[in-house]
Amino acid sequence: MSKNWLDEIKFDDNGLVPAIIEDAKTHEVLMMAWMNREAVEKTLSRRQAHFYSRSRGKLWLKGESSGHVQKVRKISLDCDGDTLLVSVDQKGGACHAGYRSCFYRKLSPAKQWKAAGKKLFDPDKVYGKISS
Fold first, then answer.
1. What is the per-residue pLDDT for 117?
2. Which of 9, 30, 101, 130 is at 20 to 30 A from 93, Cα to Cα?
């Protein structure tokens, strides 16, 4: 076993690892995001979820613009060492579309995606005009 716990994580060729974010109490999956080494280190040291934005090419703190922060309770590494599970206390919604979970769309028997649950906030008011 490696002496450095970060070396146990298998980052991909781009230096990223997928992170599944779950509610620490209910275990509801809230979102999936990417972390690089710096995001993992900051998440652990600050106990708030940090991620790497592939589209913006930079690190970001979850909730930095919305206030919907994720207080980290536990971080787990899967058996292959290539995926993280981060258990959090979620303030507000995790989804930029306004829902608690990014997985708010459910497949109906008619094979159509239907929104389930209520929006917690209006993303246009939180982020300005965005496309979801």
1. 83
2. 9
CB 74 within 8 A of CB 84: no
Task: Tell me the per-residue pLDDT of 2-34, one tens digit each, with 9 for 90 and over.
Answer: 468 999 999 999 999 999 999 999 999 999 999
In a domain, 131, yes or no: no
**Res 130: pLDDT:** 53
For residues 54 and 75, what is the distance between their CA atoms, to the nearest angstrom?
A: 22
List b or e across 46-79, with b for residues whose CB sees 16 or more CB atoms inside 10 angstroms: eebbbbbeeeeeeeebbbeebebbbbbeebeeee
Tokens 């991909």 locate to: 12
Give the chain's radius of gyration (CA, Å).
Answer: 16
CATH at residue 114: 3.10.20.810
CA distance 21 to 86: 5
The list of the chain residues with pLDDT below 50 reads: 1-2, 131-132
Residue 33: Cβ-neighbour burial (10 angstroms; 0-12, 13-18, 19+):
buried
pTM: 0.89
